[in-house]
Write a structure and sequence with these properties.
Length: about 100
């Protein structure tokens, strides 16, 4: 096993351990956790579209549980769920 492969494995183990135990994440950690680039995370914070904290006005921190909730917003319904809603709507005569 090469040194590079060993470093990658070590980084993955560290990330997984960190993400399971750490409640407050830095910008670097939050971007890795969510699988997005730091620049995209920066855009989300500047647009105030993602929950974040700036306790000293400069450094940006993220609550892991809030990130999970934010990632799970705007769920897209499956075709089956949409068909079921349509059937229920039609059976009620177009009334909710």
């Amino acid at each position: 096993m090469s040194k590079e492969e060993l470093t990658q494995i070590t980084d993955l183990v560290t990330d997984n351990t960190l993400f399971c135990t750490k409640e407050v994440l830095t910008s670097d950690e939050a971007a890795r956790y969510m699988g997005i680039s730091k620049s995209y995370l920066y855009k989300l914070t500047m647009r105030q579209q993602i929950p974040h904290y700036k306790p000293m006005g400069k450094m940006c921190y993220f609550n892991r549980a809030e990130l999970e909730n934010w990632l799970q917003n705007n769920r897209v319904a499956t075709d089956e769920e949409i068909k079921e809603r349509a059937t229920n709507y039609c059976m009620k005569g177009g009334k909710r």
